[in-house]
Specification:
heterodimer, A: alpha/beta, 5-stranded parallel sheet, 4 helices, B: alpha/beta, 37% helix, 14% strand, globular
Chain lengths: 183, 318
């Protein structure tokens, strides 16, 4: 195993600042912007983006947390018996109707989580638009899904382990890629 | 201090509280808290159990529990069908095992059952591949009722550990009391029980409850008072002289409730006999959480169905 650091704490900070600027630039009416983090690491990322957006525009967008577990495509018959994933909290402080929702997640990989997140959101209301912001895009999509705001593209092999660690969840901060070393 | 929740349930069935560990109970209650939020959304349905089939096999009368399970199944997108004894092959003398085998031949994923014989869900769980959920077996267990009671207490008082819960009424014929005693004690609460001597079985003391024959002693300083229904339909033998006398000694009245802790919760599993075991002023009063119990029942049953769902299960270990 070889573990390579791609971003450190300062790198994540700079990346998020650039993403926040892009979100502000893209949003026509910033009062409509609503950041919703996908549990677990999307939530602190959404909170940080909200602070950065507030610093730039003076308007702090609301931040929600979305748990997609009940909408996953690998619960039920596609999962070993009684190994259902543990539910996390969904907390949407405002209604999503007619808002421009920016879904925030740490890593975009197969796209299956995002599909589940879209279906979850639709059951909470009818947003005006949904955009996707991810800190890392590591490729290997299995569904036709693309992000609107990407912090960092990381070309990876499927066998690689791309790890995002945030102080809020993990007590450390950074992005690493762990590769299987052959031989 | 509460226990850390388990990552998953070990068995394929929920036959009682007895086989559950404290971390498993914690997992069910935590999951139920999240499930409760689904009822507050514009679309009160999630796709988690789509393609799963649930048979509700209710061989004893039930309205609340059966509706609650059906509601839970629909909110999780499971397909469900309900079966009761009248107008079916059970009336024609079919045995429980044959009924269950025939239903299982149609490949349901879950069988939710209520039966008048204690232990029948445990027995079927061992014979069937489907997950069996006990919705009440005789005077034995009613695990989802105890779970919804615990959920209601926890949401109101923030914890179970260290609380004193008084359970008053017909302890002899109640499955609710057994499941509740097991669950509350496992989660660190103290349980006091009270009822007329003819309706207090000897095993209450063996289960570790404080047994009182004066209701006032049981509820003094309690955090929760749980009233049990006097099963008038089972009182053929009359275990107490008159309903009026029962009310005089064992009904929860506003005067008696003042003996409990301030803000003590008033609970009842329903259906209530107003003016028998509970005074309407209490049942409809500010300390009553009786309708919250009903609301939470759906969430708890969703949690149990979700956690037991999955691929091909291993049989429950004893």
């Amino acid at each position: 195993m070889k573990r390579v650091q791609i971003l450190d704490a300062a790198g994540i900070g700079k990346t998020l600042a650039r993403m926040a600027a892009q979100i502000v630039e893209r949003s026509g009416d910033e009062k409509l912007t609503y950041l919703i983090g996908v549990q677990t690491r999307g939530v602190p990322l959404a909170r940080r983006l909200a602070k950065l957006i507030a610093a730039a525009t003076g308007v702090e967008p609301p931040v929600g947390a979305l748990d997609i577990t009940l909408y996953r495509d690998d619960v039920g018959p596609w999962r070993a018996a009684h190994q259902q994933p543990v539910l996390r909290s969904t907390d949407l402080p405002e209604r999503v109707d007619n808002r421009v929702v920016v879904l925030v997640d740490d890593v975009l990989y197969t796209g299956r989580t995002v599909r589940a997140a879209l279906d979850t959101l639709m059951d909470y209301g009818r947003p005006k638009a949904i955009r996707l912001a991810v800190l890392v895009d590591r490729g290997h999509r299995e569904l036709p899904i693309a992000a609107d705001f990407v912090g960092r593209q990381i070309p990876s092999a499927r066998s690689d382990d791309v790890q995002v660690r945030l102080v809020e969840c993990d007590g450390e901060e950074g992005v690493w890629v762990e590769k299987e070393v052959e031989g | 201090m509460s226990v850390a929740p388990a990552r998953r349930l070990r068995g394929k069935d929920l036959v009682g509280i007895d086989p559950l560990t404290a971390p498993e109970i914690q997992l069910i209650l935590d999951t139920a808290d999240e499930m409760a939020k689904i009822a507050e959304r514009p679309i009160k349905k999630v796709p988690a159990l789509r393609g799963k089939t649930v048979v509700n096999l209710f061989l004893e009368p039930s309205t609340r529990t059966r509706f609650s399970f059906e509601m839970a199944e629909k909110r999780l997108s499971a397909d469900s069908l309900s079966f009761s004894s009248s107008g079916t092959s059970v009336e024609k003398g079919e045995t429980l095992l044959d009924t269950a085998r025939n239903l299982e031949a149609m490949q349901p994923d879950f069988i939710v059952m209520r039966h008048r014989y204690a232990g029948s869900p445990h027995w079927l769980a061992k014979l069937l591949k489907s997950s069996v959920i006990n919705a009440g077996d005789g005077a034995h267990e009613h695990p989802t009722q105890a779970l919804l009671d615990a959920m209601t207490i926890r949401r109101r008082l923030g914890r179970l550990e260290g609380l004193t819960v008084a359970i008053v009424g017909d302890l002899e014929h109640s499955r609710v009391v057994r499941s509740n005693v097991l669950l509350l004690q496992r989660m660190g609460a103290t349980v006091r029980v009270a009822g007329p001597p003819s309706l207090v079985p000897a095993q209450m003391e063996a289960m570790g409850c404080e047994v009182h024959h004066r209701m006032e002693d049981a509820i003094a300083g309690a955090d929760v008072v749980m009233m049990l229904r006097i099963q008038l339909e089972r009182q053929g033998k009359m275990n107490f002289p008159t309903v009026r006398e029962y009310y005089d000694f064992f009904a929860l009245t506003p005067e008696r409730l003042r003996l409990a802790k301030r803000g003590c919760l008033v609970m009842h599993p329903g259906p209530m006999n107003r003016g028998v075991e509970i005074d309407s002023r209490v049942a409809d009063g500010p300390q009553s959480v009786i309708l919250e119990q009903v609301t939470n029942g759906v969430a708890v049953r969703m949690a149990v169905l979700y956690l037991l769902a999955g691929g091909n299960g291993e049989p429950t270990a004893d």
